[in-house]
Design brief:
The structure holds 2 protein chains of 2 kinds.
Chain A (H helix, E strand, L loop, with lengths): L2 H23 L3 H9 L14 H4 L7 E3 L12 H13 L4 E7 L6 H21 L7 E7 L10 H7 L1 E8 L1
Parallel strand pairs in A: 2-3
Antiparallel strand pairs in A: 1-4, 2-4
Chain B lengths: L9 H18 L6 E5 L7 E5 L3 E3 L8 H12 L2 E3 L17 H6 L4 E11 L2 E10 L4 E7 L3 E2 L3 H17 L7 E9 L6 E8 L6 E6 L3 E6 L5 E9 L1 E8 L5 E5 L6 E6 L5 E6 L6 E6 L5 E3 L7 E6 L5 E6 L6 E6 L6 E2 L6 E7 L5 E8 L2 E8 L5 E4 L7 E5 L5 E8 L2 E8 L4 E5 L5 E10 L3
Parallel strand pairs in B: 2-4, 2-5, 3-5
Antiparallel strand pairs in B: 1-31, 5-6, 6-7, 6-8, 9-10, 9-32, 10-11, 12-13, 13-14, 14-15, 16-17, 17-18, 18-19, 20-21, 21-22, 22-23, 24-25, 25-26, 26-27, 28-29, 29-30, 30-31
Classes of the chains: A alpha+beta, B mainly beta.
Chain lengths: 169, 445
């Protein structure tokens, strides 16, 4: 492989990565700044407490975004999975409702299925990271509860999400 | 396949605009402007004149029967009715018709009629249908006396009889449609299930909810509607009697989705999509015993069951091959056959009464359109809507037209379209979002 091709490839990768990153970060503007201010669990025994849901930078992130027609948890959400799973472990009586949502494309009933599949993916990830199935429930709203109503990819990206809702802390 | 309006002849365009203006004036009191679009030409549409019905005694009527019939015919795509402004003579009965006039206007058929005061607020409507070229009477009938407030129903019934006399196919104008509206924003949204006449008039609220309603399905006798409501948090299936308003909770598994109800042709079963096992599977619910029979078994999404007219098989949407496609399974369950092979994805079937025409939502890229697959033509597909976000096709009981939901700006609207895709009309039914149309069966009363 000659040098120019390599450079071109690297440039392409950079462009690709930048584009991806941009897309991923966009839907949750508030999180970036908070992440730097506070990262560790403040309780003395290293366990999470209910107050951390309001103050911990990781636990405060309650939305997982997905690519079109995909249910895989993207790598940048693994940290969120880990901290919420830890919370579930630290607080055995806590309970999470995972609300699956989709973008507007496709029919309502099929999107109910798709939203459920995303909720299940988050549920599995939380269990894999130490959460217990009995602490988790999945509900799908399909495309019934959009947070954005324009017909473009930016908006669709915001709607393809699972919201993590604590029903018991 | 959908062609723009260029095929429209200028004369007909002018007539149409006049017709629309007339309609707008007529119906503004009920805030339901009608908007007819001829999208693919109407060369094959049959020219027919509906002369304004003569009123013989009694107070003047709020409903113009001729307008209702004309609008029915124009929407069907099978007919184009002469605009009221072009109707130069007004014969009230066959013996008054000067056939030369209507031949000159290139009309094949002419209908004349009379509204008679029948006392006690009742009226009787008589009408005649004549063949213009043969100068021959085809129909001459007196409708049963009806309350003056019921004239729209009488008009739709007359339209049905004329439609059948000329085309040989039963008319489906005297039918009802169900749909969902969402009015308001965010947490202040109110969802309503409504039932209206097939032309969108006389909307009646059947159910209201602060949470989403979807997937209304008519029982074959037209007395009940099954639908999905999120009012208790999760999706649950209810069946509501639309005359008494009484309601039953039918499926409410705590875990997973309870969705996509569809009545069997004999009304004894409801096919549903449930996900309490972890993913959506189809079940057949016996309405008498409440016994659930599982019909599918896959790790994919199986949803939107729809019974074939013979009740032997069920069409459904499944993404077992990767993307959603249409499959068919025996009504008692078992192995499923894939039946849609064109397009990136296909969802949400509506089946015509004879089982030959199967409408679905076909998605290609970001464009979702209503496609009709004709099984008698080897599975060939034709598009009848322009997209980009069309969904919920629902055939009229005679399969000559469909309803579907579309998006205009950020708002949902309903369209009716002739099965050949040539004539499309938007039904403006509400100030909010309108969606999830379901065309009801033939009416018995």
């Amino acid at each position: 492989m000659n040098k120019t091709v390599r450079i071109a490839l690297v440039a392409l990768l950079c462009v690709g990565a930048a584009a991806c990153q941009k897309k991923q970060v966009k839907p949750q503007p508030p999180m970036a700044e908070e992440q730097t201010t506070q990262t560790q669990a403040p309780t003395s025994d290293g366990k999470y407490g209910p107050q951390d849901l309001d103050t911990d930078a990781c636990l405060r992130q309650r939305v997982v975004y997905f690519d079109f027609d995909k249910t895989e948890i993207k790598p940048e959400f693994q940290q969120i999975m880990a901290c919420h799973a830890k919370y579930l472990q630290d607080r055995p009586m806590s309970h999470i409702r995972l609300e699956g949502n989709t973008d507007e494309r496709g029919t309502r009933e099929y999107n109910l299925g798709l939203g459920e599949r995303r909720g299940n993916a988050v549920s599995s990830a939380l269990q894999a990271a130490g959460g217990s199935a009995s602490q988790l429930e999945v509900i799908s709203y399909g495309k019934e509860k959009p947070v954005c109503r324009e017909h473009n990819e930016d908006c669709w990206g915001k709607n393809r999400r699972v919201e993590i809702v604590y029903t018991a802390q | 396949m959908i062609k723009p309006m260029r095929k429209l002849t200028s004369r007909f365009a002018v007539v149409l605009v006049a017709l629309m203006a007339l309609f707008a004036g007529q119906v503004s009191a009920q805030s339901q402007p009608l908007n007819v679009q001829i999208v693919g030409g109407t060369k094959t549409a049959i020219p027919i004149t509906i002369v304004p019905f003569a009123q013989q005694g009694g107070a003047s009527m709020a409903t113009d029967i001729g307008d209702v019939i004309r609008s029915d015919f124009n929407r069907s795509g099978k007919f184009r009715s002469l605009a009221k402004s072009d109707i130069v003579e007004a014969p009230a009965q066959g013996s008054d018709i000067k056939f030369a006039t209507w031949r000159l206007l290139k009309q094949d058929y002419i209908t004349v009629g009379r509204i008679k005061d029948a006392g006690n607020g009742m009226v009787q409507v008589e009408y005649e249908l004549w063949d213009v070229n043969k100068q021959q009477s085809l129909l001459s009938q007196a409708m049963p006396p009806a309350p003056a407030g019921d004239l729209r129903n009488v008009a739709h019934q007359i339209a049905d009889i004329i439609y059948q006399k000329i085309t040989g196919v039963r008319g489906a104008f005297w039918t009802r449609i169900a749909y969902i509206t969402a009015v308001g924003l965010g947490n202040n949204t109110t969802y309503s299930l409504l039932v209206a006449d097939s032309d969108g008039f006389n909307p009646q609220v059947v159910a209201r909810s602060k949470e989403s309603l979807l997937s209304p399905a008519w029982s074959p006798d037209g007395n009940k509607i099954a639908y999905v409501s999120f009012e208790s948090g999760n999706s649950n299936i209810y069946v509501q009697d639309i005359t008494t308003g009484s309601r039953q909770l039918i499926e409410s598994h705590r875990k997973g989705i309870n969705g996509a109800p569809s009545w069997s042709p004999d009304g004894s079963k409801l096919a549903v999509a449930l996900s309490f096992v972890g993913n959506l599977e189809l079940y057949s619910l016996n309405m008498a015993t409440r016994e659930e029979t599982r019909l599918t078994n896959s790790l994919s999404i199986d949803t939107q069951p729809v019974w074939a007219p013979d009740g032997q098989t069920i069409y459904f949407t499944s993404d077992r091959s990767g993307r959603p496609q249409i499959y068919q399974v025996s009504a008692s369950g078992g192995a499923a056959q894939r039946i849609s092979f064109q397009g990136q994805n296909n969802q949400n079937v509506s089946v015509g009464y004879d089982g030959k025409q199967i409408a679905m939502v076909q998605g290609n890229g970001n464009v979702y359109r209503i496609a009709i697959m004709d099984q008698s033509l080897g599975g060939q597909v034709r598009f009848v809507s322009p997209g980009p976000y069309d969904e919920s096709p629902s055939f009229a009981p005679n399969a000559s037209m469909l309803l579907y939901a579309a998006t205009e700006g950020s708002r949902g609207v309903l369209y009716s379209v002739s099965a050949d895709g040539n004539v499309r009309q938007r039904l403006v039914l509400s100030d909010g979002d309108v969606r999830e149309p379901a065309w009801g069966p033939y009416r018995q009363h």
